Amino acid sequence: MAVPKDTILVTGANGGLGTAIVQKIIAKSEPAASHGLYTVRSIATAKSLQSTLAATKSHSHDVLQLDLSRLSSVREVATTINAKVSSGEIPRIRALVLNAGHRDQRGQAWTEDGLDIAFSMDRDSGRVVVVGGWVHEMNRAFEDEQWKTIFADPSSKSVESVAKGTWSASPDDLAQDPRQLYGIRRYGAAKLCSVMMIPELQRRLDSDPELNKISVLGVDPGIMATKITTGTPNWLVRFIFFVVTQVAGRVSPNGMIRLPHKSAGDVLAAALGTDSPIGECPKGLYFNGAEPKEVGGEAKDAKKRESVWKASVQYADLKKGESLLVDWA
Question: Which among 160, 245, 290, 303 counts the fewest CB atoms within 10 Å?
Fold first, then answer.
């Protein structure tokens, strides 16, 4: 096995899209030559990822257990990765693919720090690729006027309502939410926060004397027949949706409904590609699959973005000296 020259880190590597991304990595000679660093919520239950990695003997990789709903787990894994890179055990990180996500199928769940789980999870030279969509822009859950704007204003209270799950909180009686729209809205709000960080983080990196060569990009993977989308226990509904995605994904590959392997290719292109429209040093770009797309109206609001950033720093309990980014606060 050749010594890898760089590392590709993928979170949520056991999910439908995550596994498809890993399959794309090991199937192509250039990314397969990189060291793969794959995080999963539980190594013991990461059967899909384990099966994928078992098919290759030439791809250097590590699998790390990371629970993004627990800040202590995030800090522990970050410390482990930093130590591995600093010691030379693994090469420098070339691309970081933030793919992990969570959507409440029924009811609502919170982290041990009191944050809505969807909010907490869907958030040198190199690239950071944020996998996040426009589910908040084109979804029946947002049709009513009261849901069309997620952040009423750039105040900390507006951000807190999303972070702590009081915005679109699920009713105690789940029969009042037969279509699970409350959870879909919170999931969409969390994805909006992720998309907002693309231009905000890029702006801060660009002004940094040491980190200005890092690129931040976003990819909307579309709707896929993965567990996060088809979490319903009804096998017939899952089967019908699977058939629909297979047909739609072939008729219109970059349409709203897509196949995981197609979206995985789009994510990997954003992480490693240099062809147009990505280029050698892309900055703050956002793609609807393979096509360039502008972020939505709220993601363009600089004051709202800054408010989400500052709240995220507070929730992460980030202190001076814990980040190399100069403009971190």
Answer: 303
3-state SS string for 243-270: HHHHHHHHHCCCCCECCHHHHHHHHHHH
Which amino acid makes up residue 212? N
Report the relative pairing of strands 285-288 and 291-292 from DSSP bridges.
antiparallel
Strand partners, 8: 36, 95
Active site residue 191: yes
Catalytic residue among 187, 262, 286, 304: 187
* Pairwise CA distance, residues 272 & 30, whole Å: 9
Radius of gyration of the chain (CA): 19
Model pLDDT for residues 39-69, shown as the tens digit of each residue? 999 999 999 999 999 999 899 999 999 998 8
CA angle, residues 209, 212, 218, in degrees to nearest 5: 155
Q: Give whole-number Cα distances, 286 to 41, 47, 115, 221, 267, in Å.
A: 27, 31, 27, 11, 11
Task: Specify whether the CB–CB gap between 93 and 85 falls below 8 A.
Answer: yes
Q: Which of 38, 84, 182, 191 is catalytic?
A: 191
Task: Encode pLDDT of 230-244 as tens digits.
Answer: 455 566 766 776 777
Q: Is 187 a catalytic residue?
A: yes
Asked whether the predicted pLDDT for residue 229 surpasses 60, the reply is no
Calculate helix-pair angle for 47-54, 16-27, nearest 10 degrees. Answer: 10
